[in-house]
Amino acid sequence: MDPNRVQPLTDEKSPTMRASRLHGIRDMRLEDLPRPVPESGEVLLQVASVGVCGSDVHYYVHGRIGSQVVAEPIIMGHEFSAWVAGLGDGVASLELGQLVAVDPGISCGACEPCSQGHPNLCPHVRFCGTPPIDGVFAEYTVMPAENCFPLLEGMDAAQGALLEPLGIAIHAVDLAHLRPGGTVAVLGAGPIGLLIAAVARAAGASEVYMTEPLVDRRRFAVDYVADAALDPEQSDVVAGILDLTGGRGVDVAFEAAGAPGTPQQAAAVTRIGGKVVVAGIPADGLMTLSADTVRHKGLTLKLVRRMKHTYPRAIRLVGTGQVDLEPLATHHLPLERVGEAMEMVAGYEDGVLRAIIEVSAGPD
Known about the structure:
The protein is of the alpha/beta class and 364 residues long. The chain has ten helices and 20 strands. It has helices at residues 54-62, 112-115, 157-176, 191-202, 215-224, 237-244, 262-268, 291-297, 311-319, 338-346, and strands at 16-24, 27-34, 42-51, 64-65, 68-69, 74-75, 79-87, 99-102, 105-106, 126-127, 140-144, 148-150, 183-187, 207-211, 228-230, 250-255, 270-278, 300-303, 329-334, 354-358. The strands form five sheets. Strands 3, 7, 8, 11, 12, 19 and 20 form a seven-stranded mixed sheet that branches. The protein has a six-stranded parallel sheet with strand order 15-14-13-16-17-18, with helices on both faces. Strand 13, helix 4 and strand 14 (207-211) form a beta-alpha-beta unit.
């Protein structure tokens, strides 16, 4: 959303919209707020679908992620699709009524990381739903036109919202430089872990092993993409994956759980000279690794910071059927039930993978 935070209504004649704002821990409120206006190079977007991400839930339950703290009311949400509802001056690349997926990160374009092609590392990035920038659990938002990617014919709004987590998965696999025929472990079978596994498979992984404590997610993982899904609460998953690989370990391990012990497990199941890619976000901002494990094996360790330049590929992967997003959208709720969706995801209720907030059914 526009970097100027949305404030409560002061002029009853102003165009309005509904938005769900987080006022404190577990305190979501549906409010009437001013409808934003696009400036030059921006578009007004009528929000269609928004995914409830684990980071949204961290803010909802804990009020923070590491050093990022919710200090005042904020609109959460960043995984979204929308219809183009208005064009700012100079925008010719989009048409009114188009359904688009939206990259939620607005980088500065001028810093060293941006100039080197790494907008995801921009220290000045304005990212939807990350304090203090408002997100998109709202009927309307504005974004730069360059952040909007038209969906292919036949793709729906929920798929468009899921392109953001798919983009993170693509970036994670890019960091791994996975070779065709390589073996992979993914620790954590939430939506990000499942999509990493799916992208790894599309990139040529010959074997994909996953770990996950929730039985419903283990079953889903095997049906969806995994060769095996191990339970870390009932077995030694390190020994299990080493056994499955004949003691060698996997070429690449992806940590996608954000749990205290999973980074070390990822290092332990990786072969000598292999790679560990950490995508999970621990609630306290800390992770633990044994230096002996990483050093003795000569592992390459990489950490995922959002994504970069992934939307066109994500759209093609879905459009060609190489990655199926529909099974991950397990629950659909309206805007007034954002708090219920947060509680569902926080409590891993009812087999939820990705809860989708359906904000509007079509362009006005």
